[in-house]
Design a protein that fits this description.
The chain has a five-stranded mixed sheet with strand order 1-2-3-4-5. It is about 35% helix and about 35% strand. Helix 1 links the parallel strand 2 and strand 3. The chain has four helices and five strands. It has about 110 residues and is α/β, with parallel strands linked by helices. It has a single domain, classed as GMP Synthetase, Chain A, domain 3 (2-Layer Sandwich). The N terminus is likely disordered. Belongs to the BolA/IbaG family. It holds the Pfam family BolA. One of its GO terms (cellular component) is cytosol. One of its GO terms (biological process) is protein maturation.
Amino acid sequence: MDTQPVQGATNGENDESVLLNEEGVAGGSITKRIEDKVRAGLKVEHFEIVDTSGNCGSSFAIIVVSPDFAKKLPLARHKMVNQLLTEEIAQLHAFSQRSLTPEQWAKEKR
């Protein structure tokens, strides 16, 4: 199955983007749990999740943009996210993340 990024609904400051398969279905409940836990633990301004496993649901990459990452080194940011997702990461074959401040995200979008 091919996947394509689809822009989700915009909710106030939050800009949501989800990867849907050709049937328009998100990559399973683990994607929802990952997003819900990250949003519950951090002030998220932008979130993306991509199934990098060819839709078998065993590998994911995320981008999290949050002001909570300000003045933190990348390792500390990754630890913040990993601690929120301990159970989910344990179920995956691979997990990668990009944890950016809103300022970093704005520079990348140019």
